[in-house]
Amino acid sequence: MLIRLLTILFFLIVTGTSQLNAQEAKEQPNKKLIIGVKQTPPFIIKEENGQYSGISIALWENIAKELRLDFEYKEYDLNGLLGALRQGEVDVCINPLTVTSQRVEQFDFTQPFFITNLAIAVDKSQQNKWLSFLSNFFSLAFLKAVLLLLLVLLSFGVLVWFFERGQNKEEFGPGMKGIWNGLWWSAVTMTTVGYGDKSPKTIGGRVVALIWMFTAIIIISGFTASIASSLTVNELEFAVKGPKDLKKVHTLAVRASSGQQYLENNNIGHEETDNLKMALQQLAGEKVNAVVYDEPIMKYTIKNLDLGSKVAVIPSKFATQYYSFSLPKNSELRGRINPVLLSEINGREWRVILGEYDLEK
Q1: Does domain 24-115+323-356 have CATH number 3.40.190.10?
Q2: DSSP letters along 276-344, please?
Q3: Given phi > 0 = left and psi -120 to 50 = alpha, else beta, which region is 286?
Q4: Where are the domains of the chain?
Q5: What pTM value is reported for the model?
Q6: Can you give the residue ranges of the Solute-binding protein family 3/N-terminal domain (predicted)?
Q7: pLDDT tens by residue, 245-288
Q8: Cβ count within 10 A of residue 320
Q9: Which of 81, 90, 148, 214 has the fewest CB neighbours in a 10 Å radius?
């Protein structure tokens, strides 16, 4: 009887365990992961045959191979990708998303795999130079500089005329004609033309001439700089040299990007567009003055669109960006991905991948 009871008990245990394992296998099948992507060269590039390549793709596929994960890519625009990630429609987003305080509240992030910064692209093609020159030539600043120069010339001309008018009537006669001759002499002396048709002969006139000869060199240099400044001030006034200058120019940012968030956080007025390609094309067409976006992506896109002759990224770097893979909140995949990701980015192959896209540091 005891043996029979033990046999029945053993059968029930084995049967129950098998059913439990079968139920768990049914509830947790070998799931194919949905990997959310958005075309973001050089991190995610869609080839003509529909396949994906790029830095993030290479990194993720190495991680997936190590973890033996089955997956498929699903493409979105940026807002759609963030929404799908928020709703749990994708298991991992491998786009180079910048880790921000707002995003940390909505998503989980892996360890960063790339560190960069924001940058500013500006239009380096100039408007019609002749029209710009003529506009500045007749500006108020230029006219003021010319009038001040004439006043100085006239002052020294009158001084030398005052001493010469009595004893040197042939060259510096009385009245307006003599004053004009004094002006002519001061201009010729200042420019070192040296015609010699007018020259002071009195002691007072020669003292004035001596002082004028030495000071004219300094004065003409100063006026030259002033005139040059008045001709170029309009171009220099609106030059974008860093993020502080963005407040006085027409700035454009990509909607939902880290660049847009930076502009909003710093109360910098700007317009928005759907993608970086559209933003750079508007910049090249002189419809805006500056575009703010992540530096490596912007540089790669400018090169890819062949806009190097019209658009340039200025040297100023600001707002450090940490790129990570993102997951829905409380995803168990983060704990599995992180160790492998850290191993990958510390390996030689990672440096080779970055080198292929001119991003090795």
Answers
A1: yes
A2: HHHHHHHHHTTS-SEEEEEHHHHHHHHHHTT-TTTEEE-S--EEEEEEEEEEETT-THHHHHHHHHHHH
A3: left
A4: 24-115+323-356, 123-127+240-319, 130-237
A5: 0.61
A6: 32-361
A7: 999 899 999 998 999 999 999 999 999 999 999 999 999 998 99
A8: 10
A9: 214
